[in-house]
Specification:
about 270 residues, alpha/beta, nine-stranded mixed beta sheet, globular
Length: about 270
């Protein structure tokens, strides 16, 4: 997956029926087509956000993608293999998703700031993308990153999950039903992702870093965000931002999440930590 950003770009563009205000692009990456749902600002773009959603559920992050576009950022939600779309569970592993993300970024023009952002298991993929792309991003945003060490067993995670979603919206029900419809595959993907250790991988992040989660997100509690913050010693700027909502606050509080991303890109936001 080598090559400069902007190389090997071939696209087919469609307008998705289920995502108003977005376009769907298919980009050929290493001989395979990667689908992205892209939200573009009306005026000039002030940066590109590559957003990797958990379990490749693109619809629940759409409100945040729209909020980012309203703030002048071009947001591309990568629809990578997951649940029903992957021929093998290994294709939907967050590490593999991160490699696809890094390869997709290398097809993009290098004329604007780049944000690599991921949510939930997508945060694990974003870590992989940010540390394997040939051109380091200008900002890495990990939203609701999993898994706290205590949750690296399905039984423990199942006990923690209900509380993590207690401030969600009924409008998220279609995504929840999709998870139930593919419950066996969902469990297999999550189980495979539990072998990753973000507390070790985050030491390789050399870009500015934002760790964020909803205040009621028991799957990404504040002590876990602070632990990851302390481990990210190679990052020149790092910040923990606790926002309203719970695990899926990209759906319930998109404006606040988008504001955190914009602030992370703003010049002079903070001095490098010693």
């Amino acid at each position: 997956m080598e090559g400069p950003r902007g190389a090997g770009l071939h696209r087919r563009v469609l307008a998705p029926r289920d995502q108003p205000g977005a376009i769907t692009t298919w980009t050929v990456v290493d001989g395979a087509a990667v689908r992205a749902v892209e939200y573009r600002p009306r005026g000039p773009s002030h940066g590109l956000v590559c957003l990797l959603p958990g379990l490749s559920l693109t619809d629940y992050v759409a409100p945040t993608a729209r909020a980012l576009a309203a703030r002048g950022l071009h947001c591309a939600v990568l629809d990578l293999p997951g649940l029903a779309r992957a021929a093998r569970v290994s294709e939907a592993h967050p590490a593999r998703a991160g490699e696809w993300g890094a390869a997709w970024l290398r097809t993009q023009p290098a004329d604007q700031p780049v944000v690599v952002m991921g949510h939930s298991t997508g945060a694990l993929a974003a870590l992989r993308a940010a540390t394997t792309t040939t051109t380091p991003p200008d900002l890495v945003v990990l939203a609701g990153p999993v898994f706290v060490p205590d949750h690296r067993r399905l039984s423990a995670l199942a006990l923690a999950a209900p509380a993590a979603y207690r401030r969600e919206s009924p409008r998220e029900l279609p995504a929840a039903l999709r998870l139930l419809r593919h419950a066996g595959r969902t469990a297999a993907i999550i189980r495979s992702a539990m072998h990753l250790r973000p507390e070790d991988q985050i030491t390789d992040v050399t870009a500015p870093l934002v760790l964020t989660a909803g205040e009621a997100d028991t799957m990404a509690p504040q002590h876990w965000l602070q632990h990851l913050h302390g481990r990210a010693t190679a990052s020149p700027h790092r910040q923990v931002a606790v926002l309203p909502g719970s695990h899926n606050n990209l759906f319930t509080h998109p404006r606040q999440v988008a504001d955190v991303v914009v602030a992370g890109l703003a010049p002079g936001r903070a001095q490098p930590e010693a």
